[in-house]
Amino acid sequence: MDHTSQSPAIVQGGMGVAVSGWKLARAVARTGQLGVVSGTGIDSVLVRRLQDGDAGGDVRRALDHFPLRSVAAAVIERFHQPRGRAPGQPYRLLPRPRHGESPHRSAWSMVAAFVEVFLAKHGHDRPIGINLLTKVQIPTLPTLYGAMLAGVDVVIMGAGIPREIPRALDQLADHRPATLRLDVTGSDPRSEVRLEFDPSHHFDPLPAPLLRPQFLPIVSSHVLATTLARKSNGRIDGFVIESPSAGGHNAPPRGTLRVDADGQPIYGDRDTADLAQIAALGLPYWIAGGQGHPGALAAARAAGAAGIQVGTLFAFCDESGFSDALKRQVLEHVLAGDARVRTDPRASPTGYPFKIVEWNDAAGSAPDAHGTRHRHCDLGYLREAYALADGSIGYRCPGEPVESWVRKGGSIEATIGRRCLCNALFAAADLGQTRPEGTTEPPIVTSGDELRTLGTFLRGRTHYSAADVVSYLLDGA
């Protein structure tokens, strides 16, 4: 990718847990645009697919190409269930991510990212990207390295300030040890806790140098874009400029939080990026949020952008990782005109506003619309690290059982309205955990505000392909 006509006009959003899976990314790439896989929770995605039988053998086919044969064999031996799980059988879990985890644990993230990127790149020669959440810090380095082993071309990161990622990419490309600062609540500001990943713990001898992928941070303001361009510890290759209308996590409004009558954050002019200042940085950028319609690409290019990033239209196409049942439900309610997207300022344990699809009709409301699930925390991707009195590190999440959170020093107020996004997003991709009481985790569906206008695109259709989306977006460009 470069700042020329060869840059992709359309970047497919890296959505949720397994929603932007390899099938969607590959389908988009085959149209000539940038397909992107989601790296969020990718290690648990891998092992759950294996436990569900790996129908078609795609995961095992990718594992056959992983350069560490003993690691690939161990993954299959431990997790593959050829007939899938028995009714009511829960998924076997990986240990939750934590600072100082063993090379054995980090290998799960590495091999999972390799599998996802390998499958997305199979059968074509177009670029593939991977999207990570900056807030999910502990798996970042092994996930990046695994993706690079598979030849990932672009890394996209939002939900935070990924200032240290450029140097990490340089280091990993040369198989050198890489580190990132771990945010630890309550720690001594004079000392840093570092996450470390050393490829030599996995390879002996080290392979040939890898492709250093392009790095595109997701930002919501020209101020942050300028800061990253000037103060990151390595090369920034461009930006995704995201408005509050985009799905998933949104940047909070600048200044004091104000909400409307429905409890949604109110955004103002200060929350709109100055595209002229971003263009002055001399790097390509793609505009995200509210871009899923014909004419958006032409308008973006007229503003100096290389193109657009689109999530919502791709999220509900045939190749996306949302469960088929959820896709049918959402599209039915879109066509009926009663689907809505609510920006919830409290749902996410990260503290970032998070968009949730809701509806109400005679048959009831959207899954877990009121956050009534019994609290569990067994995945732990969104836990925060905090300093203990003895100087060690503990982990907590406002979405975990309230008594557990309070015992760890958190306030009851911080738990109000919080959801377990880890489990809910896995459930949305048909990978929900089965609980001892016989229930399955309820899903949460996230989408951008453009879901409200999706009916215009559908024109009565009940399903569509990723190629249909690309054709629609290029119309009028």
Account of the protein in words:
With 477 residues, the chain is of the alpha/beta class. It has a domain at 10-321 and 460-474: TIM Barrel. 29% of the residues lie in helices and 15% in strands. It is built from 16 helices and 17 strands. It has helices spanning 22-29, 42-51, 58-63, 69-79, 103-121, 140-149, 165-173, 222-231, 275-279, 296-302, 312-315, 324-336, 402-407, 421-428, 454-458, 466-474, and strands spanning 10-12, 35-38, 128-133, 154-158, 178-182, 184-185, 193-197, 214-219, 239-242, 285-288, 307-310, 340-344, 354-358, 360-361, 364-365, 384-387, 393-396. The strands form five sheets. It has an eight-stranded parallel sheet. It has a three-stranded mixed sheet with strand order 6-16-17, with no helix packed on it. Helix 6 links the parallel strand 3 and strand 4 (154-158). Helix 2 packs across helix 5, helix 5 packs across helix 6 and helix 6 (140-149) crosses helix 7. 48% of the residues are buried. The mean pLDDT is 90.
